[in-house]
Amino acid sequence: MKHAKSKKYFKEAKKVIPGGVNSPVRAFKAVGGCPVFIDKAKGAYIYDVDGNKYIDYVLSWGPMILGHANDKILKPVSRLLKNGTSFGAPTRREVELAQLVAKAYPSIEKVRLTSSGTEAAMSAIRLARGYTGRDKIIKFEGCYHGHYDSLLVKAGSGAATFGVPSSAGVNASFAKDTITLPYNDLESVKKVIRKEKNKIACLILEPIPANMGVVLPERNYLKALRKITEENDIILIFDEVITGFRVALGGAQEIYNIKPDLTVLGKIIGGGFPIGAFAGKAKIMNCLSPDGSVYQAGTLSGNPIAVEAGINTIKALRNKKAYKQLDRKGELFEDGLRKISDRTGTKIVINRFGSLLTVFFTTQGSVKNYADAAKCDAAKFGKYFGGMLDQGVYCAPSQFEANFLSVKHTVKDIERTLEAAEKVLMGV
Fold first, then answer.
1. pLDDT recorded at residue 167
2. Is 5 one of the annotated active-site residues of the chain?
3. Class for domain 71-317, per CATH?
4. Domain locations in the chain as residue ranges
């Protein structure tokens, strides 16, 4: 494929945008080469400025579960645009979106909309601190909750330690109140809570992590976390920005039958427009301003265009057949990759949950946490990514990200992708 225009635009972008991109992973630094600049998209496909067509497994990092430019979203949004784009005042439809979310999630009684997942996670943690009167939080290595200071923290030495900043500009005083633990290690959680339980406001995690690549919770791990947080009056926060309305209508908490105290949502609830939300028990949510003392606000929160797209996306997903179809497609994709791995002798681990999937290049038998993911061969993944791109398949441009399926991906798309994967893996 030729990428002359993309190279030209990237060169121009670097003069006026830091790194030439508005979100780091888009720069292709982890995989090498020049990022492709996208011109348009439809269904399961994206088209770059050079006219190349790709089967898209990034889907704007998850929101486009109904496929790109779906008429079920475009038509109502187009009609609404005639009425204006933002009012800075309440609208009837934001109430409807909150009602749809609460109906899908039994743990949710009240919802506060924001403009991004980062903003929602940040606000949920502030709310947990305000509600409990405690300062410390527990998070997990490899779980990403946005670029809020308290959450850009890596573990120190040892299995259960207070964190240190993982980004320049993060004040060490923020990091000292963040305890970072290995995912899927229940004993480390018990140890910390025994020592610090009266100081810990909340425990936040992705119930099915997808930001170190897809990693699955071990049997009863999430239920044990729910039990230990309840016993110690610690707020349990599920960050379902990725899994919410993707793995099931009620997210991972529906699959595992767990009710967290607070839930963070985003991506799909905006149907491709910027949005976020944090939600949960009324007694906690009522602590928010204007009724309570925990302040949170946003000029574009509940933006009517994003809300309209979200409402129509959720309504389309209430047909449960969509999730069965997505799971079947995911299974077809996973099984095909396993057979190709056997035929080519390529050592990979495939982690999948429904329509979320990551191919890890590793000789380990499994990937269960960030330490396992970090040992994977990023160079081999880079060759795989570049080869797939040349074959017209757009995968997540990092070893440590998830790939997504939409209802618009067909069996032929998956078969075409598997054909490309076999060609590429023969040379990796």
1. 75
2. no
3. alpha beta
4. 4-69+320-425, 71-317
